[in-house]
Design goal:
Layout: E1 6-10, E2 17-25, E3 31-32, H1 37-43, E4 47-52, H2 56-60, H3 69-75, E5 80-85, H4 91-98, H5 105-117, E6 127-133, E7 138-149, H6 153-162, E8 166-170, H7 175-185, E9 192-193, H8 198-208, E10 213-218, H9 224-229, E11 232-236, H10 245-250, E12 253-255
Parallel strand pairs: 1-8, 1-10, 8-9, 10-11, 11-12
Antiparallel strand pairs: 2-3, 2-7, 4-5, 4-6, 6-7
């Protein structure tokens, strides 16, 4: 009997790292850290969360603050990718929606500074982005995230690898941040899928199932499709966030700490 190859696919933010996320409401100027960006997208109409594929601690924080975000992205040829949306939206549609928007780079810088003030690392999480209303053709929120690797993660990855399990990351976070994380915990760079929205995560799991028995480990609504698609879907609550019932319904197993996946029969 031939042994079936096994793979574990991890989400990043809230799964491998403790995430700290700050949002700025462009209309009111209020900065807060207690609202879920994914909930904001879900509760809006034709909203999308887009990530700027550049280092916030070097590029964005040092940019001229009073230029519009659209001009900053356009002039510097910064790739912008959609990591979560209420429906499938093309990048070109999003850029067209914000071309006349007046939100400024300073609105992003304010959120970066708030994350750095809390001593979180903005280079191992998604970095910075925007929440756009395509219906209103405006940037409604700016957002920055930082993270700390959950202390159990390196040992969990090492133990799985020693068991012959191949490890992958599928995350909505930007490429640069995931590369740094992969290096830190010992995952090959080719096993990392960046800026993956809910549909892309599902397709990644579906593709891996051609060669592997697949466990998906995630923590939020962005992981629902992948949790359902996987042979075993595991929801981790280590981030201690409130999830809607549909997230729990998508999972086969719920754990409180990432190290509990080592005890799952797989």
């Amino acid at each position: 009997m031939v042994d079936v190859m096994k793979a574990v696919v991890f989400d990043n933010s809230g799964t491998l790292i403790e995430r700290y996320r700050v949002l700025k409401d462009i209309q009111t100027g209020v900065i807060c850290d207690y609202i879920s960006s994914l909930d904001l997208v879900d509760n809006g109409f034709q909203r999308a969360l887009a990530v700027l594929q550049t280092d916030p601690a070097k590029c964005i924080i040092n940019a001229k603050p009073h230029q519009t975000i659209y001009n900053f992205v356009n002039r510097n040829k910064i790739d912008i990718t959609i990591s979560y949306s209420t429906n499938e939206i093309k990048k070109e549609e999003l850029l067209d929606a914000i071309k006349d928007d007046e939100a400024q780079v300073k609105d992003i810088q304010d959120t970066i500074q708030a994350v750095m003030d809390k001593k979180y690392n903005v280079q191992i999480c998604s970095g910075s982005g925007i929440i756009v209303s395509l219906d209103k053709k405006m940037i409604e929120f700016t957002i920055s995230s930082g993270g700390r690797v959950f202390p159990e993660v390196p040992q969990v990855v090492k133990e799985l690898q020693e068991r012959g399990v191949d490890i992958f990351i599928a995350s909505g976070d930007r490429k640069g941040s995931l590369k740094k994380l992969a290096e830190f915990i010992g995952i090959p760079n080719e096993n990392v899928f960046d800026t993956a929205d809910a549909w892309k995560k599902m397709e990644i799991v579906k593709g891996l199932k051609r060669s592997y028995e697949v466990m998906m480990v995630g923590n939020s609504v962005n992981d629902i499709f992948a949790l359902k698609e996987a042979d075993i879907g595991v929801l981790t609550q280590q981030q201690k966030e409130n999830n809607p019932a549909k997230v729990y319904n998508a999972a086969d197993i719920v754990v409180d700490n990432i190290n509990e996946i080592l005890d799952i029969k797989f």
